[in-house]
Amino acid sequence: MFSFTTDICKHKIYNRRMRRKQIVLLTLAVVVVLLASAFGIMVLEKVSYQESLYRSLYISLTHHDNFHMQSWPVRGIVLGLVLASLIFLAYLLKLFGEYIIGLGDGLKRRKVKAKLISMKDHYIVCGLGRVGSQVAKELATEGQHFVAIDKDEDKVKDAIALGYTAFVGDPTKEIDLNKAKISKAKGIVASLGDDSNNLFLTLTARQLNPDLFIVSRANREENVSRILKAGANKVSMPNQIGGFHMATMLMRPHVIDILDSLSTNNSADLQAREVLVPKGSRINGHRLENILKHTNGLTVLALNTSNGNSQVHPTGREVVYSGDRLIVMGDRNQLHSLEKLV
């Protein structure tokens, strides 16, 4: 966190220096234009330098020649003064706009820092490319707490604008993973574009948090086993999944419609969820068939026990214990009934 704060301070100091330099240059430019114009008016109009300087200031501020100077060279100076003052005004507005935006960015950074300090039991999304941004969107839709890391400042700004917690960093470095509170996280997604980076990220994440659930992206099939050996719990191949999805759309379009409705929160009719049975739950030690009597027809697709066994389409005679996970399908009311029981 100290490094994160240091990075912000360095960024602020750099911005202040650049803004100060721009203001100094702008002031010098204004002074030079006014003095040069005053000298020209003095020579052409045969007036004192004080009078010519007053005329230059007046014309610059009002954009109007109230002195009725008739010669064309002087009129050229007047036009030049008006044009220069408009340019200076536009540049001042630009600097002011950047200052206001900087205030907004600073406020957002402080909010991100505050969120990071208190974060625990969250997910970490490494990389905000096409895959990572979709992962972040799904986590946000599910109402999950997460923090995203990416090297691209524009992608991070876009993520923060969407209300996500994100910061600029290198997910393969321990220092940035520690900023994301990896020791207190419950899961991480390695969605970087390069398999070697995902492999190194998986190794680093597993070292920093042995209990972390790691899902990694792989672009090449031969790298799946390597990433699994490095410590990933699951490995996803987006190209393979996308190809399977499109082929199923082509051959069994109605089946894929049902699967898509189960994988999103947009359907109020049918949803699929994973429900963890916590310690002290009222359903601990009860048969599955007795539990389902209170859920208005909820369908249990699978029962994953805490010791690693999985029962697909259970009969109902199975006993549910703390630590088990129920893969269920039903509407919102049915799922709500099960959540109340659990």
Short description:
By secondary structure, this protein is α/β, with parallel strands linked by helices. The chain is built from 12 helices and 12 strands.
Might you state the CATH topology name of the largest domain?
Answer: Rossmann fold
Uncertain runs:
1-6
**What is the 3D form?**
elongated
Structural class: alpha/beta
| Biggest β-sheet: strands ordered side by side in the sheet | 3-2-1-4-5-6
Task: Explain what you see.
The protein has 342 residues and is of the alpha/beta class. It has three domains: 2-114, Helix Hairpins (Orthogonal Bundle); 119-242, Rossmann fold (3-Layer(aba) Sandwich); 269-341, Alpha-Beta Plaits, CATH 3.30.70.1450. Helix content is 56%, strand content 15%. It is built from twelve helices and twelve strands. It has a six-stranded parallel sheet with strand order 3-2-1-4-5-6, sandwiched between helices. The chain has a four-stranded antiparallel sheet with strand order 7-12-9-10, covered by helices on one side. Strands 8-11 form a two-stranded antiparallel ribbon. Helix 1 crosses helix 2 and helix 2 (49-62) crosses helix 3. The longest helix is centred in the N-terminal third of the chain and has 46 residues, at 72-117. It is elongated and about 110 Å long. Mean pLDDT is 82; it is low at 1-6.
